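Q: What would this chain look like folded?
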Amino acid sequence: MARRWALAGGLAGLIPLSAHAAAFDVDHATALYLATLSPGARARSDAYFDGSVWLNAVSTVITVLVCWLILRLGLLTRLRDAMRRQGWRPWVIMLAVAALFLLAQLLLELPWSIFVDFWRERRFGLMNQSFGSWLSDQAIAAVLTLIGGSVLLTVINAVIRSFPRTWWLIGAGVVAGAVALFSLILPLFVLPLFNTYGTLPAGPLRDRIVAMAEANHIPTDRIVVFDASRQSDRISANVSGIGPTVQISLTDNLVKRTSIPEATAVVGHEMGHYVLGHVWRDVVFTALLSALEFWLLARWGPALIALGAARRGVRGLDDPAALPVLVAMMSALSLVFLPVSNSFSRYNESEADAFGLATAREPDGFAMAAMQLSTYRKIAPPPLEEALFYDHPSGRTRVHRAMQWKKDHVPGAREMVPPPLPDPGGH
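A: My prediction, written as structure tokens:
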């Protein structure tokens, strides 16, 4: 087993502890992997994750405050009234008001985004970009948000006006359709705006990926690698797209910074999302959750408008100027239902983990990859914390499942002493 890892290229430091399968102890094997994370690195990842949980709540509060400020300034009502006086069609007015609202929101929240998404990432050593490069990516994302968001909000507004009683249900279908459309165009039209993509070179890793893909009826026309290292050192892969746009993508970090068993295990996990139909499951879940949130908005939104927004010239949920009320309430509801979203995501990720282990058959590679992700995910949270705040299984959970799979499926399984993870130090 150790020789196999050495020949695979990267985990020669794995040393067998026992030659007897009966001696394989899942808990002890898991502890050996957890011990590869130094106390300093573990403290940093714990601090990063704990801070992220709080910042998520603060971000919601800031969004609500920004919406309140936009409403108070009267920007949207003035634009709405001016365009109505000039005889513009309702959908054109809504499109313009939505674009103004999204632009104002992006600009007002930019200082917070700089703090959370740039400065804090740099402080924890998770950002490779200069501020100028990061800001350039944010500008691209902002343009996409302005275009796509304005169109989506305009369609939903049209649904509210046309179907005042059942708009919440039809609107949820619109959101689900938008998610499906975005999944279709993502690999070909969106992702290349942020990174450079090229074909994964021929070699052992590509051979393994092709074999796994063909065994699971996944198209192999596009197996690519992209320069994610320009943004960070995080390892990842994905199988994105729908139908003719399916693409297997690996970050250059995954290719360069991990062994073939690790990279194979990660790609096997991502193939699980595709084979198990998680994209479509996500669409259905999004539709159901959106329907619930829209239903609550339909019930409570008019009261919120009557309490304060009406004094600012907002006349109902179908009013373009009501966007701050709608977005603020949706942000708050998304935070309330976050544990539900996390649980759904974690279930999908657990299924993909099991699929990846069975497909790649690299439990030690999977365990090492899980440990590498510990730079920004608390490795061993309490069970309740994992249930509430984790959208992926924790590193400890993943390593333990990998070691259990190894005991159950690898004849003569042996415990290994994995090499220590590199400690980049504080930033």
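The two ends are 37 Å apart (CA to CA).
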